[in-house]
Structures
1.
Amino acid sequence: MAGSRKPPSASSRRVGACDPRIAARAVLSQVDLRGRRLGVGLSGGVDSVVLLHVLHGLAPQFGYRLSAAHVEHGLSPFAGAWRRFCAALCRRWRIAFASRRVAVAPKGRGIEAAAREARYAALGALPIDALALGHQLDDQAETVLLNLLRGAGVRGARGMQPLGVLRTRRGPLPLLRPLLDVPREAILGYARENALDWVEDESNARPALTRNFLRLEIAPRLAARFPRWRQSLARAARHFAEAERLLREAGREAARLRVARLRSAEPEFARLLLREFLRSHGLRAPSARRLAEMLRQVAHAASDARVAIAHDGAVLRVYRGALRLTRAAPAGFAPIRWRGEGRVPIAALGGELRFRRARGAGIDSARLDGRPVTIRARSGGERLRPDARRPRRTLKNLFQEAGVPPWERDALPLLYCGERLVWVPGVGVDAEFQAGERAAGLLPEWRRDARAPRPGG
């Protein structure tokens, strides 16, 4: 039965070589939390209670402001009692406390995944600067093993990280797991030494839940044959994390993945590169068969082939030997009158046009005075003369010279003065409107929202 429990003896010796305080201190020393708000996800179980106790004791050394939050899923008849236990514990330790109730909607993902997603969403919305969770070594080993059984790649096999990031609506939130290297028996030993109370979740005894099945049925058998199986999986996770980090860095270095790189790479590495390219653009990893087919089409297509491979709501293309990722074609928009604003959002194109004042660069401001200036979508047939030494030319030719892919050309805002085209992103300012050496100039800049899908498809 679920409820509050007190260890049998406060003088019992802690089992295990890893002290939670030493482990937490090692993680905390890697981030600067002085003067910042550190929140702890407090379920009431022994892991989160020990974490809160440890962080409470280390707060003077690291200078953070500690608080705790309990998320109530409403899935257990004891949920109210757990919340009251957490609130009473924080009152006793004089720690700021908040509770949040969430609705869990599985939607085909399973109750465990849905509850985790709802919990993270609630914790991520708290007014804190960093979040600490009580995951420990057993959790890490179980996570790695489950991910491997599900056929995860390098990213899934790396498990959890002591220092990570939680994506929230407010932006990235630092996520700390100070006890990730501490085995469960050391957690229990610490709780007994410090006479801590905690609650037991009765659902932990249900083997029908996947993680419980692994913990109750499989882990004891592994431990009998491989006593250090948890440490071994945790060490493997660190190796996978290093491989994933190196791959991610390689993906960042090559913002545009070259087809030639895929052709020359070993098949295994080529698949990893393509998978990382897709992941870095926020797309889900394709199945192994789908990934192999995508790689075949990209790597073996003729240089002038019009590659367009649909995946996860996006389209994979090749332009001038490089991979490009595009999404839905932008909607047209009515001309927008510019009245001197520093920023003009254009929702239809997923970005905003910015204007910055400059001396002797950009558009000559005097040439625009007293004349209507508008922002328009491309309609076809436009011509521009960015070089005074050359004749006026079509945007199609100028775009080709500038290396602007065909599918992006209709998603760029054009600046007009009256009926004269003045400026085009990626191409430049018409010679007639260019600012002289000492003239007051205006520098337009087109910025796409990084979260918005790229045009095309």
2.
Amino acid sequence: MIIDKIENLWLYEKLNPRFAKAFAYLEETDFNQLDSGKYTIEGNDVFALLQEYETKSAADCMLEGHQKYIDIQYVLNGEEIMGMTSFANQKVLKPYHTDNDIAFYDGEYSTVKVAKGNFTIFFPGDLHMPCLKVNAPARVKRLLLKSELCD
């Protein structure tokens, strides 16, 4: 798990060979000109999901984990709390689904506030719970970059 400011993005480029393309897309794209949806960067290896949503209470969210993709989540507008923990045999609420590369879990987690200009990186083995409200439900615009693990 990584949380940092967008100014430090360059520090993480060498963690995965596909990060360079994902980060270039993030830095070169005007997201005010795009609608929410999926955008292909490099086939199924690297793609982006531009999302807008209302933050929620923890009772309405679940920890999630991935096996195939690394999540890079960049907050474009607003702020949210994200739950995070390492996988350690948490109770499975919804088993892994290969088509969506996701499983849902129940267990303890720590939280961190992620505001406009911050990003997180979640690797397989990192469980996370995005979309949590800070004080009250609020609108958030986020870019979710998905980068497939390299062999």
3.
Amino acid sequence: MTETSSRGLSRFRLVLWGLVVLVAVAATAIFVMRPPASPVGLTGAPFTLQSTAGGTFTQDSLKGKPSLVFFGYTYCPDVCPTTLAELAGLREQLKLTPDQLQIVFATVDPERDTVPVMAKYVSGFGTPIVGLSGSNAQVDTAKTAFGIYSKKVNDDGKGNYLVDHTATVFLLDKNGAFQSTID
């Protein structure tokens, strides 16, 4: 190897090591300076819905106890009732009370899922589940706060339709901060 190529290789290594250090410093800065976790819910955005437990339910209602939050609708033929039954069974299996683990079911179909409809529906799972509904605008705000997608499909024009929607269960800690999703 010639002296010139040796110097070129040394400079290349030096530049490469400089880039490694730069990336390490940048990654550390991003980690240290990242914003804290959302204070409440998934995004921390405020929302207000009507609760089957009475009164309004806001992002602040998620504080004080861990919560499992699921968005769906009462006319769902399979995923929603199965998920709620599994969540109720999970809480029972863990021997937790509703004060130790709150289960929240928010509608993506406020046209059909009024508060009385939600109350009747959630009462069928054998354990207290908080049902949430509201106006279209209120539900849209809550969906946005949790990053929920929903869309009416197969609408026959007579009020019979399905709703495609995100089927994720959100686990929030006792401060209402997002911790994880549950499959």
4.
Amino acid sequence: MSDITTILDERKKFQLENNLLYNFLEPSATATFYDDFYSDEVKKNAPPEFLDAVKEHYHQLGEDAKRMEAIISNLESRFATKGIVVEIGGSRYQNRSANAYSRFRNYFPLDISHSSIQAYTQTYNKIGFVSNAQQLPFKDNSIDCIFTHTFLEHPLEPEKVLNEIIRVLKVGGIVVHNDAWFCRWWQRYGVVKLKKFSNMTFQEKLISLSAWFTELKVVRIPPILMTRLAAELFAPKNKVTKLRYKKLTPNYSLHLGCDEDAASGIDPLQVIRYYESRGFQLNKPLSSTQRLFHPNNSICLEKIA
């Protein structure tokens, strides 16, 4: 677009770097962590012995890449040439986002990591935003499409992010979340499935055994289903709902990329309900049974009011 400032909230101050990077960020421990995480200059701790193998395993499965390709292809059919598309949590690694930068005329990544967005602007010679997603730098009703990928679990207050998305999206705008739902308490330790049991400390072994128990389906699934059923049956209709999620303690001392830095465990159905109570509807309606057994998949909603 010819003038990016037409969508920016004039009340928010920023620094313009290299005519491409719009920096709205205020210093915080979270911002420092993600700046270091994506920086090539910051020395990282030695990774656990199985980390590379675990990441390669999921890479070979390719499910994540297929899902993002389907999401971007769907959005591309609607917003390729018209409309402003923002990826919250967008990064220098555009392969994570099915190379969205090349598929939308007005695509803009926004992230709390200065180093990531700086690398994006330098690599692709395109505009990027550095900002806390809990305070988006855009005007009300100014954005046509917002999508996230493995992002929503990281902000300390995810409900503020959702409120900001609701504020800046136009009526008729689309939001897609392809996030890491139900992040676990044990991920912050960086040991489960990442270290050989015999090489763990006594405390790490206790963590690993506890994680094994809580991951049993007969232990983990029933509470989720009961919570969903109660919400669907007894929560007041047509009433603004709260976002209910499990707070986690992010670990900012590790740089593994295995959600050790996750700040919450979120049920996608809770996010759906949050949006629905604020004038959104699902792109594809779900039956009561489908809502109850909704998988850890992406969700897509349209702002209708």
